[in-house]
Amino acid sequence: MAKRNSFILLTDLSVAESLRRLHDTTDIAQRTMFSLSGYKGSMPVLSQFDGDRFTLWKRKYYRNDFSPYLYGSLKPEGRGSRIDAQFDMQRFVKVFMRIWLVFVALLSLPWLLPAMSGGWNADDLWALKILGAMLVFGFLLPKFGQLLGKGQERYLREFLESTLAARPSDTELPDSPRAIENKPLG
Fold first, then answer.
1. pLDDT digits 0-9 by tens, 95-108
2. Upper half-sphere CA count for residue 52 (Cβ side, 13 Å)
3. Which of 71, 99, 139, 167 is most buried when burial is the number of CB atoms within 10 A of its CB?
4. Helix 91-116 crosses helix 122-148 at what angle (to 10 degrees)?
5. At a CB cut-off of 8 Å and minimum separation 6, what does 148 contact?
């Protein structure tokens, strides 16, 4: 079963032509100190390519490490191409947040274990509250960043569809909680 943020598009363009169009309508991600966005160029979408795989993200003039990136791959299909795409955070950000949460959880053990055995004082309670707040913050901050980036997902999908003259695949139907009955008419 596909992830919630995954989708499939079809285009009549070849893989090579699709890649060429993506190259022409995006800026290759090259860092620079002399840009408000941190990247060279001025196009609204930034990109990286690795063979038939690509990564797209919207140029931002503010910092949001939890904003979505569009990861995709192009494969020949029929007389055109198939685009398998998915939205996700950068791998580095996901790994860092997991390490952060494990670190805070392990850091809280010296206060939590004595507190569970009944030998705690007011200082231990404050330490647990602070560490608990750090854990909650570590869970909520990515959700808030993803919420801020929701419009970017729509923008990037529409950009991909218009740039590659792509359409949703027939296999990409929304899941329905209701069973469909197949009864003859009449």
1. 988 898 888 888 87
2. 13
3. 71
4. 160
5. 64, 66, 67
Q: Residue 111: what are its φ and ψ, rounded to 5°?
A: -95, -30
Residue with tokens 């995006």: 26
Q: What is the pLDDT of residues 57-80, one digit of tens each?
A: 998 877 788 888 999 999 999 899
Q: What is the CATH number of domain 6-89+152-168?
A: 3.30.310.80
Q: Collect all residues with Cβ–Cβ distance below 8 Å to 120 and sequence separation of at least 6.
A: 111, 114
Q: Which residue has the tokens 């670190």?
A: 103
